[in-house]
Amino acid sequence: MKKLKITFNAPVTLGFALASLVVLGLNILTRGRNNSLLFSTYHSSLLSPLTYLRFFTHVLGHSGWQHYAGNMMYILLLGPMLEEKYGSKKIGSAILITAAVTGVVNYIFFPNTVLCGASGVVFAFILLTSFTGFHDGEIPLSFILIAIIFIGQQVVDGIFVRDNVSNLSHIIGGIVGSVIGYNVNKR
Fold first, then answer.
1. Does residue 182 sit in helix, strand or coil?
2. What is the pTM of this model?
3. Angle at 68 between CA 65 and CA 74, to 5 degrees
4. What residues have CB less than 8 Å from 24, skipping those under 6 apart?
5. Could you give the CA distance from residue 123 to residue 78 in angstroms, rounded to a whole number?
6. 77-98 pLDDT, tens per residue?
7. Proportion of the chain in helix, strand, coil states, percent, rounded to 5
8. What is the rounded distance in angstroms from the CA atom of residue 122 to the CA atom of residue 86?
9. Residue 39 CB contacts under 8 Å (≥ 6 apart), including other chains
10. DSSP E strands: which ranges in 56-113?
11. Cα gap 52→120, rounded to integer Å
C-alpha cells in the first residue's frame, strides 16, 4: 500500500490564504488597527507611501472570520486548478493586478468608502475559471452565462441591497479575470 503525503500543490493560492489568515489574526489582536493602517484602501494622502502599498494589500485584510472564510473557500477551490493550468506566476500576477485595479478605482471614484477583502480576487478567479476551455476564435457559452448572471446579480445588489459589500470591486475583479483569461488563452 502506497503512503499518502500532503503536498503544497498551489504555492501562490496557499500562500495567499495563509497570509490572509495571519493578517486576520493580527487584525483581531489589534482590534482593527492593523486593517486600518495596512490592509484597507481608502482616500488618503498621495504623499504617503502607505496609500500605494494599500492599493495592493487591501486584498489580504478581512473584517472577520466569516468574511475571510467566505472568500477563502472560493480561492482555495478555484486557485489550485487555475495555478495548475496557468502557473503560479500568472496567478500571482492576476491577484496583484486585481488588487491594484480595484484599489485605484475605489480610491478615485469612492473617496468615502473603505475597501477591504479578497472578493475582487474571488470574482477574477471565477471568470478566469470559465476560460479554462477557451480556444482562439471561440467564446465559451459557460463564460457568457457566468458573466450575465454574475454582472446582473452585482448590479441588482448594488442598487437594491444596502450592505458593506463592494459590488463594484466584484464587477472589476470579474472584468480583470475575463481580460486575463482571454489574453492568456488566445495565445
1. helix
2. 0.86
3. 135
4. 61, 62, 64, 65, 68
5. 10
6. 999 999 999 999 999 999 999 9
7. 70, 0, 30
8. 16
9. 23, 27, 54, 57, 58, 60, 61, 116
10. none
11. 18
Distance, CA of 163 to chain centre = 19
Largest CA distance in the chain: 62
Assign 165 a pLDDT band (cuts: 50, 70, 90).
low
Task: Please give the average per-residue pLDDT across 106-117, as a whole number.
Answer: 88
* pLDDT surpasses 60 at 178: yes
Return the amino acid letter for 169: S
- Rounded CA gap, 157 and 165, in Å? 9
Q: Tell me which residue has cell 478581512.
A: 62
Amino acid at 103: G
Pick from 112, 89, 113: which is nearest to 169 by CA? 113
Integer CA distances (angstroms), 85 to 107, 131, 179, in order = 33, 11, 16
Average pLDDT over residues 92-113: 92
Say what the pLDDT of residue 89 is.
96
Cell readout for 109 is 471614484
